[in-house]
Amino acid sequence: MYKSLIKPLFFKFDPEDVHHFTFSSLKFINKIPGISSLIRSQCQVVDSRLEREVFGLKFKNPVGLAAGLDKDANLYEELENFGFGFIEIGTVTPKPQEGNPKKRLFRLKDDQGIINRMGFNNGGVEQAVERLKKNKGTLIGGNIGKNKVTPNEEAISDYEICFEILFDFVDYFVVNVSSPNTPNLRALQDKEPLKDLLNALQSKNKAKLNPKPILLKIAPDLTDDQLMDIIEIVEETKIAGVIATNTTISRENLKSPEQVEMGGLSGKPLTKRSTEVIRFLTQKSNNAFPVIGVGGIHTVEDALEKLEAGASLIQLYTGFIYEGPSLIKDINKALLVRSK
User: SUPFAM superfamilies under this entry (predicted)?
Assistant: First the structure.
């Protein structure tokens, strides 16, 4: 029904408008008695064989929702009903910000991709926490970033603010220094600034009674030498793992006219590169840390390739938009078949 009816209708309208309409509709529909239970019964695959224990957390299945869809923690419970094993909210920043001027979200239908230049539009970390206080058991990742107006020299403070405010309300953290849509943000991926940032957060983390896993989300555009630096940094700072990968600035082999738009590209064009990065990190580090694989998962085969490349968990975003909720169920069912 999604691919034959709902998606063709939605794809006739502006993607950001559709996003807001969908969120409002899902919020309303799930308030109707029995609807949440009905969605869960149709979408969720519940089986102990799907459970994964990664960086000390127990995931009911390995298929999560990537950051960017539920930036402000508006819909994490409703989205979990579709069968996700975990939900990553954000990227959140210390202060609310509008993000970049519209239009800033573009479908590349011929390539099954999306270009976004949203620019960390969000209501601020404190607003997200107010919604997370109502969480009844969804496993939540908190993706944190810096405000656009904060210079890189002061970026650590922004990440620390988000870390402290979110700490009691998320299960793990993701440090986002790899979005291409905040000016100069990717410079924080350079070796020394990145070590300084991660060490500062780890210092805050170790002071807690029960520290939380901290992960680093990296760009797919890093060279092999830069990826070797990432491995070294993870080992030195002792963070819990890596999310590979964020969106790409590459426009190689695209057909859609929207390819000229600035921003980060996600979806099918990223499938191969993100898998290469996962395989590189796991092989070169001798599986020294967990990797969450994300980027271009549109089919069961895409998901299995990420896991076979070494990913401990996977996340969907653009594939969820193009393929619908059935993709989550299909992946989990395929994993059950493989477990026999």
Answer: FMN-linked oxidoreductases
